[in-house]
Specification:
With 140 residues, this protein is mostly helical. It contains 5 helices and 2 strands; from the N terminus they run ααβααβα. The chain has a two-stranded antiparallel sheet with strand order 1-2. Helix 3 crosses helix 4. The longest helix has 29 residues.
């Protein structure tokens, strides 16, 4: 029933007739019927090949982006040793000493400003491990 002066909204939904639905379903069935098994296999193989290429790319990316392994020496702490003394002894002179101390503490999972105890073992990353051995590391 249409009331005078009331317009039909522009967003109204018009449902297709049963015959329209039947025609569209028949067209879709013909399209699906034209797809051969060979086409499906080709698409499947292309998809597998694309996934393999992506996998190889990700694997190579991780391998290339992995940081280089830094050689590490272990040192047993002697009485009077501090993180500062180890950072000064083993660190690069081009790097600020406080930064070296912080990195050494973080590398050994120590809180900043922690005290070392005699007998404690520290792992110290060094550029040239042949230059340092247990005797020279603790004697310097």
């Amino acid at each position: 029933m249409v009331h005078p002066g009331v317009r039909k909204p522009s967003w109204s939904l018009e449902l297709p007739s049963i015959s329209d639905v039947r025609v569209r379903a028949q067209r879709a069935a013909r399209v699906v019927g034209r797809i051969r098994l060979r086409d499906v296999e080709t698409v499947s193989m292309a998809l597998v090949a694309a996934l393999f290429v992506v996998y190889i790319g990700v694997a190579l990316g991780h391998a290339l982006l992995r940081p280089a392994q830094i050689p590490v020496i272990t040192v047993r702490v002697q009485p009077g040793d501090t993180l500062w003394s180890f950072a000064d002894r083993f660190g690069s002179p081009d790097e600020y000493i406080l930064r070296r101390v912080d990195r050494l503490a973080a590398y050994n999972h120590l809180p900043a400003g922690s005290r070392l105890h005699a007998g404690q073992v520290l792992r110290i990353p060094v550029e040239n491990p042949a230059k340092w051995d247990e005797r020279t590391a603790s004697a310097q």
